[in-house]
Design brief:
- The protein has helices spanning 12-16, 25-82, and strands at residues 2-3, 6-7.
- With 83 residues, it is mainly alpha-helical.
- It has a domain at 25-75.
- It has a two-stranded antiparallel ribbon with strand order 1-2.
- Strand 1 (2-3) and strand 2 (6-7) form a beta hairpin.
- The chain is rod-shaped.
- The relative contact order is 0.05.
- It comes from Neovison vison (American mink).
- Residues 1-24 are annotated as: Disordered.
- One of its GO terms (cellular component) is cell junction.
- This is Bublin coiled coil protein.
- GO terms for molecular function: molecular adaptor activity.
Length: 83
């Protein structure tokens, strides 16, 4: 029967041939390479997330400023009309 990590029904003779855990250097190198790629992708996503967060903060501040200016103009408009 085969499990998620390979053949679990390995015979004693196969283990005695020098592969204690069923993985060879090539398998470890492939896993290492995949982990490096995943790490690189996660770093890239983190950078994009940080950039988006900074841009959203700028947009939020800009919207606050615009809203305050708009409120000030609305507050001044009735006094200008009464003059």
């Amino acid at each position: 029967m085969s499990g998620p990590n390979g053949d679990l029904g390995m015979s004693v003779e196969a283990g005695a041939e020098g592969e204690d855990d069923g993985f060879g250097e090539a398998e470890y190198a492939a896993i290492n390479s995949m982990l490096d790629q995943i790490n690189s992708c996660l770093d890239h996503l983190e950078e994009k997330n940080d950039h988006l967060h900074a841009r959203l903060q700028e947009l939020l501040e800009s919207n606050r400023q615009t809203r305050l200016e708009f409120q000030q103009q609305l507050g001044e408009a009735p006094s200008d009309a009464s003059s």
